[in-house]
Amino acid sequence: MIKYITETTDYLISKGFHKPEIGIILGTGLGQLIQEIEIIHEVSYNHIPYFPTATVEFHKGKLIYGNLEGKKVVVMQGRFHFYEGYSLQDVTYPVRIMEKLGIHTLLVSNAAGAINLNFKKGELMLIDDHINLQGNSPLAFKGVEHLGERFTDMSAPYDFDINSKFEEIAKANNITLHKGVYASVIGPQLETRAEYKMLKIIGADAVGMSTVPEIIVANHLKIKAAAVSVLTDECDPNQLKPININEILAMAGKAEPNMITLFKELIKTL
């Protein structure tokens, strides 16, 4: 993997990706942040050596380099998921590349279902902690110790100072920003009523199919990390209705302006 990482990094440097400070993974609900970036260079994933290719129809597939609020950023427009058939090493490979390019901070967005019924769809949740239910780890491979400490500490996977800034920004801009625990499952199927009940019992406030692998690798590489979820549906097992993906996407779009405000105002402070 070290050889692959070196070749990928050298390729992107040759394309002008020069010492970004902040990495951003645009999940559902933050796609329009691209409009706020002064784009210097962009490369399609399928042109980058050893990069996976996004297969989800509403996820784009570009790595973007540019200026945002006075900072150099490298942005994943579209992410990879375990449920697409990739290994967790594939899913998190871009995080390792962004670290080699020079980032010190990783910011992540995603769409999630609200397990905590005090949280409503269209609102945002700052991830304070997580539960990994994907049945695997992106660090579980031979030779991982050559890339960072094998037994990575996860006592505080989400940076306290960044989370505090997010909360201050939300308050100043009258944005509802809950704080809670995100459970990451494999997917792509949605949860059953019994599974939603279980998630509530074990302490989850929201559930999704991403983010945790990338956060684990960010901690492995000692990068500061933070993540925000768009709550796109309310997962009440006693009133569960068939899922409508178009409604989820519409709800993510409704929440997007608030998400963009949070990220832009935060980046100013980093």
Would you give an account of this structure?
The chain has helices spanning 2-14, 88-101, 160-172, 193-201, 212-220, 245-269, and strands at residues 22-26, 38-44, 62-68, 71-77, 105-114, 124-132, 177-184, 206-208, 224-234. α2 (88-101) packs across α5 (212-220). The model has no long low-confidence stretch (mean pLDDT 94). β7 (177-184), α4 and β8 form a beta-alpha-beta unit. With 270 residues, the protein is an alpha/beta fold. It has a single domain (2-269), classed as Nucleoside phosphorylase domain (Rossmann fold, 3-Layer(aba) Sandwich), CATH 3.40.50. The protein has 6 helices and 9 strands, in the order αββββαββαβαβαβα. A 5-stranded mixed barrel has the order 5-8-7-6-9. It starts with a helix and ends with a helix. The radius of gyration is 18 Å and the shape is globular. Keywords: Glycosyltransferase, Transferase. The purine nucleoside phosphorylases catalyze the phosphorolytic breakdown of the N-glycosidic bond in the beta-(deoxy)ribonucleoside molecules, with the formation of the corresponding free purine bases and pentose-1-phosphate. It is an enzyme of class 2 (transferase).
